[in-house]
Design goal:
With 181 residues, the chain is mainly α. It has one domain (2-180). Helix content is 79%, strand content 0%. It is built from ten helices and no strands.
């Protein structure tokens, strides 16, 4: 909850970028649906890796990308359009986004789910807006007070979830099954 509150503070701290009225409600609704889908997929992956320790994580990640990407191919072909960037620059940017921003991230995320509790792995995803604010600051656009406080809250929340005492108090699968017996 602390991390979520921090993310909200970061987003809402810039009133020029926040929609109003029904647009805000639709945006929040879609964001919540996306979060539910992301959580469901990750929890499903966690269950699979617990049941099948030898699960082929790169293979299942590739299958996820094929299932999500192949249906988009007709849309790309039919959309047409053009860009103002030179083709090699655009290709390099797309390659970076696909390999680093998607494939490596998903492989790492799925591998982390096989090793650590879901709560710990998901907590790290809250750092995305915090990293965006830090990158913006490094590029010269310093955040306002609200965004800075939000980043600090997010980092604090992630730290709490990943603290060794929090890990010790969280029941593991082995402890839960021993307690059930």
């Amino acid at each position: 909850m602390i991390g979520f509150g921090g993310v909200l503070l970061v987003v809402l701290s810039d009133p020029g970028n926040v929609a109003h009225g029904s647009q805000l409600a639709i945006g929040f609704g879609l964001a919540l649906l996306g979060a539910l889908g992301w959580a469901g997929g990750g929890l499903g992956m966690r269950v699979l890796t617990q049941r099948e320790p030898n699960l082929d994580i790169p293979g299942i990640t590739a299958a996820q990308f094929l299932a999500g990407g192949v249906p988009l191919i007709p849309l790309v072909l039919l959309a047409g359009g053009s860009t103002h960037r030179s083709r090699p620059v655009l290709d390099a940017q797309l390659l970076y986004l696909v390999i680093d921003g998607q494939v490596l991230v998903y492989l790492g995320f799925n591998a982390a789910l096989s090793q650590w509790p879901s709560t710990r792995v998901y907590a790290w995803t809250f750092l995305v807006p915090a990293v965006a604010v830090v990158v913006d600051a490094a590029l010269g656009k310093l955040p306002g007070f609200g965004a800075t406080v939000g980043v600090v809250i997010v980092i604090l929340g992630v730290g709490i979830v990943n603290h060794p005492r929090a890990e010790a108090q969280r029941p593991t699968t082995a402890r839960r099954s021993a307690a059930a017996r």
